[in-house]
Write a structure and sequence with these properties.
By secondary structure, the chain is α/β, with parallel strands linked by helices. It has a single domain, classed as Purple Acid Phosphatase, chain A, domain 2. Strands 3-2-1-9-10 form a five-stranded mixed sheet, with helices on one face. It has a five-stranded mixed sheet with strand order 4-5-6-8-7, with helices on one face. It has three helices and ten strands, in the order E-H-E-H-E-E-E-H-E-E-E-E-E. It is an enzyme of class 3 (hydrolase).
Amino acid sequence: MKKTVLVMGDTHSQFEATEAINKHMKDVDLILHTGDNYKDINHIEGLYNIKIIGVKGNCDWYGKDEEIVLINDKKIFICHGHQYNVKTSLNNIFYKGKEINADVVIFGHTHVPYYIKEKDLIVLNPGSLSFPRNGYPKSFAILEIDKSIEVEFISL
């Protein structure tokens, strides 16, 4: 059965941004949060009454550094990205995904949306809902996960 996953990160306690996703929440089964700020997860859970799996970012003091989630037999690896030096290169995080046989690697930290599919690995960054960089708009991503994985970026 298809699962719809909303991916967000780098919200930095800007709650008006997390509330702006409301019209996209109708069919969402799960939210994944890439960190910064981990404490925002409680606010978002309260707004939408939905399960959220998140990791801590470089601005967070608690939470897990990484998570692996299985959805419809697809392995999804989530981290903030700073520990893999994603501002310099995506090689480390790409090879981490390969090492653990992930289907999807999700990271944040750069505040820039990113997507690449190379063979059987998707690497993506949803961008930032609060402070986007490099001229990009505030954004998040929606994953439709079934036998395949479809990715859509949504700008606010």
